Amino acid sequence: MRQENPRRRVGIMGGTFDPIHHGHLVAASEVQDRFGLDEVIFVPTGQPWQKGHTYVSPPEDRYLMTVIATASNPRFATSRVDIDRPGPTYTVDTLHDLRASYGVDVELFFITGADALSAILSWKDADQVFDLATFVGVTRPGYELSDAHLPRDAVRLVEVPAMAISSSACRDRVRGGKPVWYLVPDGVVQYIAKRGLYRNGPVEPPR
Ligand SMILES: Nc1ncnc2c1ncn2[C@@H]1O[C@H](COP(=O)(O)OP(=O)(O)OP(=O)(O)O)[C@@H](O)[C@H]1O
Ligand SMILES: O=C(O)c1ccc[n+]([C@@H]2O[C@H](COP(=O)([O-])O)[C@@H](O)[C@H]2O)c1
């Protein structure tokens, strides 16, 4: 028998996206396919309180780069929910807000790279977030993917094509006058140049 109104399956890819790069996009695409998600919402952070570097580009620039990067995929979208909420960005708020906007008939999957997954217990209200979404930890070159520190059955682990790209490396390259073509989408290369992002940023400690 055909199921009426099946629950919508929505992925959430949260990130500072300063800038968004192909590592983020490949991870989201792979998880969308693996879990048969109806859509993946990219959610740029407002104030990423745990980022080690002090300077983060304006939220509007990071939001627009994310819109540009996701525009060509009909299953990708970008949300302002975190950049429009004042104060530090906490995933517990992101999940409450998105759940409220979709209503009860939604199943949320929050996608995190191996590095973010390893730090999840330091997040605000970490004990609550696992009740609001299924967490999907994805592989990332240079980091070990493990859920040994997390509640049983709270997390799914997924291997994604290895993309040894980071936003900090992209920023370093722009500051050093090197190209970022093919590390970030073409439109994002052009947006960075048009807005003069990262040219004069601070030298960041190696990660
Ligand atoms: N190359 C990658 N492969 C898989 N996951 C990634 C990759 N890059 C980032 N992620 C994941 O995407 C999410 C958002 O990452 P973020 O926007 O902080 O990018 P970043 O490259 O880690 O930035 P930075 O170098 O400035 O710290 C995090 O969950 C992170 O683990
Ligand atoms: O909720 C928290 O306390 C928290 C702390 C650090 C990171 N996060 C979320 O994790 C995602 C990746 O963050 P980042 O800083 O690695 O770009 C993004 O959606 C953040 O809002 C969430």
Automatic annotation (TrEMBL):
Keywords: ATP-binding, NAD, Nucleotide-binding, Nucleotidyltransferase, Pyridine nucleotide biosynthesis, Transferase
GO biological process terms on file: NAD+ biosynthetic process
Enzyme Commission (EC) number: 2.7.7.18
Family designation: Belongs to the NadD family.
Reaction catalysis annotation: nicotinate beta-D-ribonucleotide + ATP + H(+) = deamido-NAD(+) + diphosphate
Name listed for the protein in its UniProt record: Probable nicotinate-nucleotide adenylyltransferase
Gene Ontology terms, MF aspect: ATP binding; nicotinate-nucleotide adenylyltransferase activity
Top-level lineage group: Bacteria
